[in-house]
Input
Amino acid sequence: MSYLISTDHLSKKYGTGTVVNDLNLRVPQGCVYGFLGPNGSGKSTTMKMLLSLVKPTSGEVHIMGEPMNRGTRRKLLGRIGSLIESPPGYGHLTGRENMQLIQRLLNLTARQVDQAVETVRMRDQMDKKVSNYSLGMKQRLGIAMALAKQPDLLILDEPTNGLDPAGIEEIRELLRDLATAGVTVMVSSHLLEEIDKTATVLGILSGGEMIFQGSRKELFAASTPDVIIDCSDPGHALSLFNQDLDGRLAGESVLLSNINERSTAQVVSSMVGAGIDVFGVRRDEQSLEDVFMDLTKGGGL
Output
């Protein structure tokens, strides 16, 4: 597989504290890579190291097959668009004037700028001062600035922050369209549902370490959903289980955690042998948030 971003044993320490530890990131070309993790897990620091805004304590960053270092930094950043933390833009200038500044600084054509503005659907807002923009409009302008140089890689930190549901849907479609067009997108977000609808590859950080990386299907396979057993006497059923089983009552059912198929069959057999009627056995449906909370031990975003 061709990786547009790869890191090898990437670490960042501040004093005695480790923010990112031995990170081996793999972002395939042409995907939307959803970057998730609780607050303080190291997502923003990692993105800044990818962009050479923060110097790693150890390890290496490779972008498009080349190491990110002092000699390659300028060339590589010319092929990367980014929106990290607060959206850019001078409030006393209009959106159009801000984009004209980007055009001059990056030596872009008017067509490149117009296309970026059209992509984020801001054409009718460009003559307003940025100070009068909503946060969502500022986010879109920031993405337009990042897209203007037609990058091969787009790195976005919370791009849907401040957007209404319609705006979130537009950004979601935009990111998917960009990936279809060949742009690799790496996006962090606290909106798990949006990442679930947008990303084709997921990476989850916890405590500065990568605890999962792969497709959505692989992520759900890495987590074991609870088993729910509907039966005639859940209290009696629960008393049959040995201490190795993690079980609890859930209404008229018994809920078992971290149990495989073979052990589930043995539990059901024991219940039937004890005269308990079993009406149904099923795995609990899981959302991305359920799996995330399971893997990060309940860590919030």
User: Anything to note?
Assistant: The two ends are 30 Å apart (CA to CA).
